[in-house]
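B., you asked whether I could sanity-check this one before it goes into the benchmark set. Here's the sequence:
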Amino acid sequence: MANERTLSIIKPEAVGRRLIGAILQKFEQGGLKIVAAKMVRLDKKKAEAFYAVHKDRPFFSSLTNYMSSGPVLVSVLEGEGAIAKNREIMGATDPAKAAEGTIRRQWGVDVEQNSVHGSDGPETAAQEIAFFFEPDDICGSDR
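And here's what the prediction gave me:
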C-alpha cells in the first residue's frame, strides 16, 4: 500500500465532550501520523460548502446545522493506506453498527453525531484537505 493522506474531523459533540486527545491517540496508535491540525469553527455557509455533495439529501440541513454548532478539530493524517486505515479506526457511520474498539462505537451518539468524519477516497481526501489547509500547513514525511 502507498503512503497517503486523508482528512479527519473531530466533530462538535466530541470536541464538546473533550475527546480530542483520546481520538487522536487512537489514530496514532493505529499507525497514522498527524501532519497538520487546527481547531476551526465552521459557519453555516462553510459547512454547506464542505458537505455540498450531500445538498440534495434529506439530512443536509441537519448535518450542516450540527457541523456549524461548535468548534471542530480538522487534521491531516498520513501513513500507509491512510484512507482505509482511518476508516477502519473510525468504524461504521452508525455507531450501533460499528465494530467494538472503533471511535464511533466507543464515543458516537448517533449517525450524525458520530464523533468523526474521514475522507472516503483519494480524490475526496485531496479536495477535503485543500478545503482546510494550504500545502505549507502540512508537515509530513515529504519535509
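One thing to flag: DSSP finds seven helices and four strands in the chain. Otherwise nothing jumped out at me.
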